[in-house]
Write a structure and sequence with these properties.
The chain is rod-shaped, with a radius of gyration of 19 Å. Helix 1 runs antiparallel to helix 2. By secondary structure, it is mainly α.
């Protein structure tokens, strides 16, 4: 589940889907500790990337909103 340096970033929906699959796998009662740790590490990386994508989207929305407000200049 690693992402190449040159590959296109995953969409947020893809990241969330992968996180859901990782959680399902981690909830399996007979999972080996090594596999669980690898899945946890992958999940943390995905969660961090998703958080970054959300922060960037929020910043874009703030810029768009600020640019769409009429200016209150007194001429």
């Amino acid at each position: 589940m690693s992402e190449d340096q040159n590959s296109e970033p995953k969409k947020l929906s893809q990241q969330l889907d992968e996180l859901a699959e990782l959680v399902k796998a981690l909830e399996t009662p007979d999972i080996e500790i090594e596999e669980a740790m690898a899945l946890y590490e992958s999940g943390m990386k995905l969660a961090q990337a998703a958080q970054q994508a959300l922060a960037e989207a929020e910043q874009r929305i703030e810029i768009i909103t600020a640019n769409s407000k009429p200016s209150n200049s007194d001429s």
